[in-house]
């Protein structure tokens, strides 16, 4: 970055960059348009571009069940709009003179400011009948589309404006500065903004900063009025100097190089999204786990575009291959550190793959006269990666096969690049050496894919994939299981035990004890269940009982009907509701449940909006007199029980926790259930609940208290247990 600041000093002092620009530089200094204004515009714009992504994603995440696909779809939207912004900058630079560019962009800045603020209102809450991907894209376009479009054009457009005065390779270093601003925005969000500010405050603050950005960039745009066509032509055709010569002469750009400008960023984008999906599915949909992979992705741009000396392909490839090997051998590690080790290896692998992709594309950058075309093609590659992961893979695949496929592809390409690079300190290649190893690379790519295909299809009856993830129906020795990602969501034993409750819902589980105790007290019960699974809880139904089954994922309902008979065998009346549990309950103002069961907190996705002060108040209004609320908090990576205890106390309710041991011989598993009711409720006196425990003073003191505006999954995350 040293050259950028040297250029700033020259510009501020009025010293011209080259003899041919003496008159223009002097004019710039006289009117105060120095490099500092270009840098400020780049930094602020980049900060806002990547600060809005976690803000708007967190706004809409609760409305779509907390699924990782929300983040993937948001990323697709932002990548498509980024391409649109870069293309707009290219068209503006190519077909308009500086005066027209300034006028058009000032009008666009003004229009973008008029659509603020960005937070969607409650009127946008989905009803459950929409196509989630299309509805989410439309919602994002309506609220952040125009501001984000303007912001996304900032990098290439401001660099293009700077090239009117300096056409050396220094202009490209502003791209590293842009990514530095983006990186700061991402890293600051989970630590500085999310824990302190409410979602609405974050939205308002972002809107105010956008107005400041509009003023700063507006000042830079207005200064274009003084640039003449003659000076622009002279600057573009003037010498750049030997020390800053572009990597590729504009006249020598081949179709293969232009294809690389798209393909390499596309591969990096795909790896970003598939790794983010994998980490979120195995841990939790936490902003920090979105931010970390994206931060590494941006850091690779900073390293590769700041200076060619930072890019060393051979050691980068070696570290990447080592991380890939450790991923394959994760099962050899102790169970207590497998999760952390796997996540770290995936992050190292992602960073290495992005460094290699972006390092090569930076090595192939053209002269500044092709700058906007170059950036437009880079952003097209990023958008292509988003389309592949967010749209094509869910349409074409019924599982998450894209992860092993692209990991295998990266392994093969990294292997070839490692042997093609001649030395550890320079980017010199012997492609003939790589060609001799092409069959070894093919074996490296195919072997893990075949292994994965054989293992994943073993005893798998059916598999469905949609916006909410991958559902698989598998055969096990005791019965048929429903698996969502890596989490078991229920099992039905083979005849003659097909009507016995299993997994987390056995007779000795917390919910099993509660249902039996309530049935002894009431001849009929109205039971609400948020989270259908395969319908195991309906095994407790009596002819006089009524179940309201609420499920956000239509594929779950389809699989429960086709491959399980729990609901068919149940003698109770049943009403099904498609949609998010909280939104459905809000649309049932007259419902009064004797028992309300929350069973939506798996390790795949945690809908935090179901565990807030406002949601607890809603549940209380939906309970009949003497009604009971049970919450299933079994989870591999999140400690939810203290949070539920604290929410119950805040709502004036009494809570107990009951852990079921499980019995593998009858298909039941360990489970943790929270039992919540009015203080002194008779349910707590039931002999079967004698083992239920209350919260300790220490638990209540340290437990978080989530609200709709303040909830942070990091506060309940446990990675080492």
From TrEMBL:
<keyword id="KW-0620">Polyamine biosynthesis</keyword>
<feature type="transmembrane region" description="Helical">
    <location>
        <begin position="285"/>
        <end position="304"/>
    </location>
</feature>
<feature type="transmembrane region" description="Helical">
    <location>
        <begin position="437"/>
        <end position="455"/>
    </location>
</feature>
<protein>
    <submittedName>
        <fullName>Spermidine synthase</fullName>
    </submittedName>
</protein>
<feature type="transmembrane region" description="Helical">
    <location>
        <begin position="36"/>
        <end position="56"/>
    </location>
</feature>
<feature type="transmembrane region" description="Helical">
    <location>
        <begin position="68"/>
        <end position="88"/>
    </location>
</feature>
<feature type="region of interest" description="Disordered">
    <location>
        <begin position="8"/>
        <end position="28"/>
    </location>
</feature>
<dbReference type="InterPro" id="IPR029063">
    <property type="entry name" value="SAM-dependent_MTases_sf"/>
</dbReference>
<feature type="transmembrane region" description="Helical">
    <location>
        <begin position="339"/>
        <end position="362"/>
    </location>
</feature>
<feature type="transmembrane region" description="Helical">
    <location>
        <begin position="403"/>
        <end position="425"/>
    </location>
</feature>
<feature type="transmembrane region" description="Helical">
    <location>
        <begin position="205"/>
        <end position="227"/>
    </location>
</feature>
<feature type="transmembrane region" description="Helical">
    <location>
        <begin position="95"/>
        <end position="116"/>
    </location>
</feature>
<feature type="transmembrane region" description="Helical">
    <location>
        <begin position="174"/>
        <end position="193"/>
    </location>
</feature>
<feature type="transmembrane region" description="Helical">
    <location>
        <begin position="316"/>
        <end position="333"/>
    </location>
</feature>
<feature type="compositionally biased region" description="Low complexity">
    <location>
        <begin position="9"/>
        <end position="21"/>
    </location>
</feature>
<keyword id="KW-1133">Transmembrane helix</keyword>
<feature type="transmembrane region" description="Helical">
    <location>
        <begin position="136"/>
        <end position="162"/>
    </location>
</feature>
<feature type="transmembrane region" description="Helical">
    <location>
        <begin position="259"/>
        <end position="279"/>
    </location>
</feature>
<feature type="transmembrane region" description="Helical">
    <location>
        <begin position="374"/>
        <end position="397"/>
    </location>
</feature>
<keyword id="KW-0472">Membrane</keyword>
<keyword id="KW-0812">Transmembrane</keyword>
């Amino acid at each position: 970055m040293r050259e950028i600041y040297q250029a700033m000093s020259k510009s501020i002092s009025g010293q011209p960059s080259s003899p041919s620009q003496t008159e223009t530089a002097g004019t710039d200094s006289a009117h105060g348009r120095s490099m500092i204004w270009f840098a400020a515009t780049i930094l602020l714009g980049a900060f806002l571009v990547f600060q809005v992504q976690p803000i708007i994603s967190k706004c809409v995440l609760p409305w779509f069940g907390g699924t990782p696909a929300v983040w993937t779809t948001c990323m697709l939207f932002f990548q498509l709009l980024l391409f649109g912004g870069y293309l707009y900058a290219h068209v503006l630079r190519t077909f308009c003179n500086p005066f027209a560019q300034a006028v058009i962009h000032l009008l666009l800045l003004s229009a973008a400011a008029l659509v603020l603020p960005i937070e969607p209102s409650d009127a946008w809450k989905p009803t459950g009948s929409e196509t989630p991907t299309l509805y989410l894209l439309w919602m994002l376009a309506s609220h952040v589309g125009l501001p984000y479009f303007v912001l996304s054009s900032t990098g290439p457009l401001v660099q293009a404006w700077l090239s009117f005065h300096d056409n050396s390779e220094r202009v490209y270093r502003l791209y590293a500065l842009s990514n530095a601003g983006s990186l700061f925005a991402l890293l600051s969000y989970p630590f500085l903004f999310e824990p302190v500010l409410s979602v609405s405050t974050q939205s308002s603050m972002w809107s105010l900063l956008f107005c400041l950005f509009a003023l700063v960039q507006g000042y830079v745009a207005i200064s274009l009025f003084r640039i003449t066509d003659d000076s622009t032509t002279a600057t573009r055709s003037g010498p750049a100097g030997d020390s800053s010569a572009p990597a590729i002469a504009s006249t020598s750009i081949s179709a293969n190089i232009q294809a690389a400008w798209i393909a390499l960023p596309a591969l990096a984008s795909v790896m970003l999204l598939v790794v983010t999906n994998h980490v979120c599915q195995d841990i939790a949909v936490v902003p920090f786990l979105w931010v970390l992979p994206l931060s590494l992705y941006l850091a690779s741009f900073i390293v590769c575009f700041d200076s060619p000396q930072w890019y060393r392909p051979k050691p980068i490839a070696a570290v990447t291959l080592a991380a890939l090997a450790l991923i394959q051998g994760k099962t050899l590690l102790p169970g207590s550190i497998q999760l952390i080790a796997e996540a770290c290896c995936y992050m190292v692998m992602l960073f290495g793959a992005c460094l290699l992709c972006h390092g090569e594309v930076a090595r192939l950058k053209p002269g500044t006269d092709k700058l906007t075309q170059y950036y437009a093609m880079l952003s097209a590659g990023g958008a292509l990666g988003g389309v592949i992961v967010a749209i094509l893979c869910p349409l074409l695949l019924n599982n998450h096969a894209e992860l092993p496929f692209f990991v295998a592809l990266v392994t093969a390409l990294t292997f070839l690049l490692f042997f093609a690079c001649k030395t550890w300190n320079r980017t010199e290649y012997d492609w003939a050496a790589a060609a001799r190893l092409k069959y070894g690379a093919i074996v490296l790519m195919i072997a893990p894919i075949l292994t994965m295909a054989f293992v994943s299809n073993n005893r798998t009856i059916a598999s469905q994939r949609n916006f909410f993830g991958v559902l698989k129906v598998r055969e096990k020795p005791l019965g048929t299981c429903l698996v969502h990602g890596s989490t078991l969501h229920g099992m039905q034993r083979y005849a003659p035990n097909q009507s016995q409750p299993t997994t987390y819902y056995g007779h000795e589980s917390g919910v099993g004890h509660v249902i039996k105790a309530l049935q002894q007290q009431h001849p009929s019960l109205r039971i609400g269940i948020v989270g259908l699974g395969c319908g195991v809880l309906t095994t407790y139904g009596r002819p006089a009982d009524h179940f309201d089954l609420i499920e956000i994922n239509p594929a779950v309902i389809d699989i429960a009907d086709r491959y399980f008979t729990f609901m068919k065998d149940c003698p109770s009346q049943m009403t099904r509701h498609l949609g998010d549990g909280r939104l459905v309950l809000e649309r049932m103002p007259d419902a009064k449940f004797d028992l309300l069961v929350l069973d939506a907190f798996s390790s795949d996705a945690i809908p935090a909006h179901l565990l807030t002060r406002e949601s607890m108040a809603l549940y209380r209004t939906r309970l009949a007199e003497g009604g009971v609320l049970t919450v299933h908090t079994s989870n591999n990576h999140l400690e939810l029980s203290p949070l539920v205890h604290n929410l119950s106390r805040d709502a004036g309710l009494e809570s107990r926790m009951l852990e079921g041991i499980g019995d593998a011989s009858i298909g039941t598993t360990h489970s943790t259930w929270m039992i919540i009711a009015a203080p002194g409720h008779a349910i707590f006196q039931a002999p079967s609940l004698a083992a239920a425990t209350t919260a300790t003073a220490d638990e209540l003191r340290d437990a978080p208290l989530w609200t709709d505006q303040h909830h942070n999954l990091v506060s309940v995350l446990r990675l080492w247990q």
